[in-house]
């Protein structure tokens, strides 16, 4: 049976009467509010927004921020409330955590849902990339100080210091030597099928090692960071997939805006939402579940997709602003209001580049190349 939107299904003839109806509407292409006859004023050409606290038209966004928060809170609540207790202080839930705005917003809202003090595991993965490490002088740098490790630690400290100071936020560094990549590469590739591109492999490796949860627990002791060996205990993992597709997080969304304005951007967002299940989610589920973990996606709950699909395009993203602001603008404003002043301003970085799983053997390979 084919999946169709409700309005499309009603218009089909009897030959399509057995179609399945999606529980949300198609992404709106409207770039205006229902009660607003004019598009919002454009920022000055040289205007650089360096602090979301200075964002001016906040009153126009506030109803959408509030609605988004309610929808996302409900999505997270449904995904964690039925997880059984494991006892002995073993966490029930973990987050694949780069420190980016998607995952840290999930963490901040999760803190409002879980009982006080209940531990949460934050899994942050980093790879030894031989093409990168050969340029690093011995002793000059930790080979695992990849971009996602830096933002991950920064985000963890922001959660500890500003969001929930009493909660046991367990930041787990999952460091992957190149030898382990070679050891498990063939197995991960089998899990990807039918996905078969270089990018699928780069993403799949990051998700597989991160969800395995074998690494080092980072602890703050007398203002210093200490580490001890650690095996993650959470069987349910929250992932931030779906935020980029719905809120304009990819570089192709900015390119669509540059080449065709709001109309082309809206079509690109609509396409991404339509194909995410077949393009990404099967792959991600297979990789994570191979480690006996269950991936749950708060941004892809039906109520969240339904809400965001109806929000006017320019209230979700505004490509007139620079990177780190314009894309996923609605999510950034929510994160800022939750107290995540620093993380709300981070620009999008794909996991394969943030964790450095991309281009391990050759710099000439492209993400769309077949394995």
TrEMBL record:
<dbReference type="InterPro" id="IPR014729">
    <property type="entry name" value="Rossmann-like_a/b/a_fold"/>
</dbReference>
<dbReference type="GO" id="GO:0006529">
    <property type="term" value="P:asparagine biosynthetic process"/>
</dbReference>
<protein>
    <recommendedName>
        <fullName>Asparagine synthetase domain-containing protein</fullName>
    </recommendedName>
</protein>
<dbReference type="GO" id="GO:0004066">
    <property type="term" value="F:asparagine synthase (glutamine-hydrolyzing) activity"/>
</dbReference>
<keyword id="KW-0061">Asparagine biosynthesis</keyword>
<keyword id="KW-0028">Amino-acid biosynthesis</keyword>
<dbReference type="InterPro" id="IPR001962">
    <property type="entry name" value="Asn_synthase"/>
</dbReference>
<feature type="domain" description="Asparagine synthetase">
    <location>
        <begin position="259"/>
        <end position="355"/>
    </location>
</feature>
<dbReference type="InterPro" id="IPR051857">
    <property type="entry name" value="Asn_synthetase_domain"/>
</dbReference>
<keyword id="KW-0315">Glutamine amidotransferase</keyword>
<dbReference type="Pfam" id="PF00733">
    <property type="entry name" value="Asn_synthase"/>
</dbReference>
């Amino acid at each position: 049976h084919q999946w169709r939107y409700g309005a499309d299904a009603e218009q089909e003839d009897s030959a399509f009467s057995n179609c399945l109806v999606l529980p949300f509407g198609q992404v709106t292409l409207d770039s205006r509010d229902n009660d607003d006859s004019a598009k919002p004023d454009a920022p000055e050409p040289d205007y650089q927004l360096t602090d979301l606290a200075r964002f001016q038209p906040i009153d126009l966004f506030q109803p959408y921020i509030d609605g988004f928060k309610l929808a996302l809170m409900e999505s997270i609540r449904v995904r964690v409330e039925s997880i059984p207790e494991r006892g002995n202080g073993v966490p029930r839930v973990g987050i694949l955590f780069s420190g980016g705005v998607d995952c840290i917003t999930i963490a901040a809202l999760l803190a409002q849902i879980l009982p006080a003090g209940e531990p949460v595991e934050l899994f942050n993965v980093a790879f030894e990339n031989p093409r990168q490490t050969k340029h690093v002088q011995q002793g000059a740098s930790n080979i695992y100080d990849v971009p996602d490790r830096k933002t991950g630690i920064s985000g963890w400290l922001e959660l500890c210091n500003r969001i929930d100071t009493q909660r046991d936020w367990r930041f787990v560094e999952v460091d992957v030597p190149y030898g382990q990549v070679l050891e498990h590469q063939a197995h991960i590739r089998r899990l990807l099928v039918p996905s078969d591109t270089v990018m699928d492999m780069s993403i799949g490796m990051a998700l597989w090692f991160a969800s395995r949860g074998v690494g080092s627990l980072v602890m703050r002791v007398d203002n210093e960071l200490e580490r001890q060996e650690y095996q993650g205990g959470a069987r349910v993992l929250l992932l931030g997939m779906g935020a980029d597709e719905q809120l304009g997080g990819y570089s192709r969304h900015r390119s669509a805006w540059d080449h065709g304005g709001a109309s082309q951007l809206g079509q690109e967002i609509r396409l991404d939402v339509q194909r995410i299940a077949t393009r990404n989610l099967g792959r991600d589920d297979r990789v994570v579940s191979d480690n006996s973990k269950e991936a749950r996606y708060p941004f892809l709950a039906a109520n969240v997709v339904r809400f965001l699909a109806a929000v006017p395009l320019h209230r979700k993203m505004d490509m007139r602003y620079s990177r780190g602001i314009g894309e996923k603008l609605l999510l950034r404003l929510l994160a800022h209001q939750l107290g995540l002043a620093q993380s709300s301003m981070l620009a999008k970085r794909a996991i394969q580049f943030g964790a450095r799983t991309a281009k391990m053997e050759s710099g000439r390979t492209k993400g769309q190349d077949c394995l």
